[in-house]
Amino acid sequence: MCKVTSSTPLPTQHWPDEFAKRYRAVGHWRNETFGAWLRERATAHPDRLAVVGGQQRWTYAELDRRASSLAAGFAQAGLQRGDRVVVHLPNIPDFIGTVMGLFRAGLIPVYALPAHRITEIEHFAKGSGARAYVAAATHAGFDYRALATELQARCPSVEHVWISGDAEPFTPLDALYAIDGSALPSSVSQGSQVAFLQISGGSTGLSKLIPRTHDDYIYTLRESARICGLGPDTVFLGALPIAHNFPMSSPGFLGTLYAGGRVVLSPSPDPESAFALIEREHVTVTSLVPPLLLQWLDLAPRSAHDLSSLRTIQVGGAKLSAEIARRVRPVLGATLQQVFGMAEGLVNYTRLDDPEERIIHTQGCPISPDDEILILDDAGQPVAPGQAGHLLTRGPYTIRAYHDNPSANARSFTEDGYYRTGDIVRMTPEGYLEVQGRAGDHINRAGEKISAEEIEDHLLSHPQVFDAAVVSVPDEYLGERSCAFIIPKGDKPRAADLKKWIRGRGIADFKVPDQIVFVTQFAATAALKISRKALRAQLRAQLLAQEASAAGTTAANDSTATS
Ligand code: AMP
Ligand code: DBH
Q1: For residues 327 and 278, is the Cβ–Cβ distance under 8 A?
Q2: Distances in Å between the alpha carbon of 88 and those of 49, 241, 330?
Q3: What is the pLDDT of residues 196-217, one digit of tens each?
Q4: Bridge pairing between strands 235-238 and 262-265
Q5: What global pTM score does this model have?
Q6: Which residue, 87, 142, 372, 528, has fewest beta-carbon neighbours within 10 Å?
Q7: Rounded to an integer, what distance in angstroms lies between the CA atom of residue 542 and that of residue 536?
Q8: What is the distance in A from the centroid of ligand 1 to the CA of 26?
Q9: Among protein residues, the one whose CA lies closest to atom 6 of ligand 2
Q10: Ligand 1 site: residues with CB under 6 angstroms?
């Protein structure tokens, strides 16, 4: 059952004064807000197309008008400045209309992915103290209205539900668009206030909520748009779910709108849908995760669609192999840009004019001259130049704390405010980062991060599971897949039933283990003393060795070194 709103603190994000002063003095933070810059763009070029999706084509003036209508509608319903609203929408114009409306009203969106289900949504609603939920009626065969009903039963603090599309029994979002919001101010917020809560990939346990301010996020939009060469001619294709931080802000749909360009939304990332839109809308840039890039590279040579408008293909979210990186320009005729970022802040880009080898082999360098980077060994000492170590960072757009989560904050931040990214990187002499792997135990499945612990907890509540360990396994296509090792209790369950059961727990499909291996025990030695981390490493090594011998390979598989 959800906590009531009043007991959930208003999200904040603070940098120590000396940092905040400096970030303002050098012009990173300009007290710009989302509501205000949208109005400025709509005034400067009202008739330019801003958002294209489905049958809809909204100009900047139209987007601005819709944002005001929704802002007025949310306020009329009783929502108050600072209230949190879970946004659970796919790639449709209503996503952008909704978040812009929330910004204008000083409400705080909490971004959920379309793949999330009741368990995750309840966690977000509860953790943020949300008072409202906005979703599409259906998407990809799933009915979000049923989820909304369940959510309200579990979380009475979620008083309002608005639905894009056929809303019964809830209120249609469309009804709010009919409200006249023209008397509202363009913004009621300050740059230093929290604009939204982003979701962490969940390195340990459940996802954490990431409060980002107008000042810090708009700084990344402005600089990302500059680094990526965006302007009025830019046509950005949102192919990945745009609730992800990458297609949202690096530079993503928000960076594109900030730069006065056009956002085209693809309901699905598959190359068939995307290629048709690229041809029709003359798309110039898009962002992909490595497995999706593989699909695009595979289909492009056989596709009848004209892709010649593409200038930049951004790839990030998970490590891109140099071999695949090399194919981007010859096959897609566009410049590859590697993007290594995180919803907590730090974003690195290869620059468009970097030498080809640097674009192929590195994951870029930070956005800001004020991004501070530490690469430390296990003992917390700086590594020698060029050596691999733990990446820690702080800067003008990297958070200093998660929302309302003291234990995660104690783990994830140093006393002097550095964020422990969990990534293992090395730095080239030119100051570019190469991601080597990560220290933690999450699974990076095609860019979606899955916490091993979260899935183990689900498995452990199954009556026929005695113990469970979930590990990442290298996968040719996904980058990594998840494998659950299970010690059964009593009768061994069937793997397929276990998967079905875990899906029935109401979690995102990408979290359901790809592979299940039953074992009679875990470590043969001192099982009680072995750490979870060491156990997972051991199980992964065993599996890889078995697979290698089954494939007749004699070479030791060393891929665990990076995991
Ligand atoms: P999240 O916490 O969900 O925002 O995910 C951020 C994490 O994704 C980073 O800390 C990295 O582990 C991973 N990641 C993002 N981009 C890349 C990339 N280009 N190469 C390798 N790993 C990446
Ligand atoms: O994986 C990510 O979270 C990510 C990748 C690229 C990200 O948040 C970003 C760029 O901003």
Answers
A1: no
A2: 24, 11, 37
A3: 999 997 666 789 999 999 999 9
A4: parallel
A5: 0.94
A6: 528
A7: 10
A8: 28
A9: 341
A10: 200-201, 245, 316-319, 338-343, 363, 421, 423, 435, 438, 444, 449
**Residue 46 identity:** P
Whose alpha carbon is nearest atom 8 of ligand 2? Answer: 342
279, burial (CB in 10 Å: exposed 0-12, middle 13-18, buried 19+) = middle
CATH level 3 topology of 442-559 = GMP Synthetase; Chain A, domain 3 (3.30.300)
User: What integer pLDDT is reported at residue 559 of this predicted model?
Assistant: 37
Q: In degrees rounded to 5, what are phi and psi of residue 545?
A: -65, -40
Report how far residue 405's alpha carbon sits from residue 483's, in angstroms, rounded to the nearest whole number. Answer: 29
What residues does each domain of the chain span?
17-425, 442-559
Find the length of the chain.
Answer: 563
Does residue 556 register a pLDDT over 80?
no
Q: What is the CA radius of gyration of the chain?
A: 23
Mutate to test the pocket of ligand 1, among 200, 248, 314, 342 (most ligand atoms within 8 A of CB): 342
Distance, in Å, from the CA atom of 416 to the CA atom of 271, rounded to the nearest integer, reads: 45
Contact 178, 426 (CB under 8 A): no
Quote the CA–CA distance of 258 and 221 in Å, as a whole number.
Answer: 7
For a ligand 2 pocket test, name from 244, 315, 346 the mutation site with the most ligand atoms within 8 angstroms of its C-beta.
244
The closest residue, in CA terms, to atom 22 on ligand 1 is 318
